[in-house]
Specification:
By secondary structure, this protein is of the alpha+beta class. 26% of the residues lie in helices and 27% in strands. The chain is built from 4 helices and 7 strands. The chain has a 7-stranded mixed β-sheet with strand order 1-2-3-4-5-7-6. This is GNAT family N-acetyltransferase.
Length: 167
């Protein structure tokens, strides 16, 4: 008989000491799915090693998922650059295998959208890739609709899945 054990995960705002850990999570998950820097995925972002500083700006927020003191995932929201001022972007949602299937991505995305509404955003945009089937299913479940044209200037040219949601 197998006894299911509950995994204790916590979700908290990013702190300065989390920079290296969340960058490692993003690099690890990107490598797992073949999302390489040369194709313009998140691993190519020049801010990857300074996410605390990036998300400490007004209108930005980022949370990390922690298990036994170790950062195992994260995600955030920020104004969509080169876009209408009412659009934010759900960004850098990455989770190691031990953090998946626990409801943390949904919880984090909902927190991010609540934060965005409080900041005055009325729409939330995201870009991803078809390789991330589980993520796409979550975004659809949360009410995001597929759109054909990219918004803003994210620099993620190979993110062929674009989605938008009214907040």
């Amino acid at each position: 008989m197998t006894i299911a054990t509950r995994v204790d995960l916590s979700l908290r705002p990013i702190a300065p000491h989390d920079n290296a850990a969340i960058a490692s999570v993003i690099r690890t998950v990107s490598a797992e799915y073949g999302l390489t820097a040369d194709k313009g995925y998140t691993v190519a972002d020049p801010t990857l090693d300074t996410l605390y500083e990036l998300y400490s700006q007004p209108g930005h927020a980022y949370w990390v998922v922690v298990r036994d003191g170790k950062v195992v995932g994260g995600g955030g929201v920020a104004p969509l650059s080169c876009s209408e001022p009412d659009i934010c972007e759900l960004q850098k949602m990455y989770f190691l295998p031990e953090a998946r299937g626990q409801g943390q991505a949904k919880k984090l995305a909902l927190m991010a959208m609540d934060f965005a509404k409080q900041q005055g955003f009325t729409r939330c945009y995201l870009e991803t890739t078809a390789f991330l089937k589980e993520a796409i299913a979550l975004y659809e479940h949360l009410g995001f609709s597929h759109i054909s044209e990219p918004l803003g200037c994210t620099g993620h040219v190979d993110c062929e899945v674009r989605m938008l949601k009214s907040l």
